[in-house]
Amino acid sequence: MHQMRLYNRSLPQMLNTAQLLLYLNAALDLLFRFGGAFGLLLVAAEAIGAFGLANERKWGYWLALVAASLPVLITIMYFGYLSYFSAIVTLLVRGVVVVFLIHPTSRNYKSIYFT
SS3 for 3? Predict the structure, then answer.
């Protein structure tokens, strides 16, 4: 019987770190009220995506990838209107999660073991 879990230590290092960073980003977004109603939707997508990663679900991987990519794309679109420091920090922190999710090791593990 498959047990539901919040954190999966047996994932490869890239997916494991992405999972932790998604939970951390969701908590920080909730704490600092990032973006109003869109922010709450993003918090839910990050947390549910991380939960799906922990339980090795393909929908969790794709939801995590979308939830991690949206802030990066929005920051790139509005880069000129934001302060450069906050834009660069956002791109670095959020971009790392995207890079970890699209890394070949993560994609190979997903294609073999995720259901």
Answer: coil
CA 4 to chain centre: 19
Question: Would you say 33 and 19 are in contact if contact means Cβ atoms under 8 Å apart?
Answer: no
Give the C-alpha separation, 29 to 24, whole Å.
8
Q: Residues 64, 52: contact at Cβ < 8 Å?
A: yes
The amino acid sitting at 92 is: L
Note the pTM of the prediction, 2 decimals: 0.91
What pLDDT, on a 0 to 100 scale, did the predictor assign at position 24?
A: 94
Tokens of 113: 């073991």
Please tell me the distance from the alpha carbon of residue 72 to that of residue 102, in angstroms, as a whole number. Answer: 14
pLDDT recorded at residue 1: 42
Q: How is the chain split into domains, by residue range?
A: 13-113
Tell me the average confidence (pLDDT) per consecutive run of 10 residues in the chain, 115 residues long: 83 95 93 82 95 95 96 89 86 94 95 91
Which DSSP state fits 10? T
| Residue 30 near residue 43, CB atoms below 8 Å | yes
CB count in 10 Å sphere of residue 27: 13
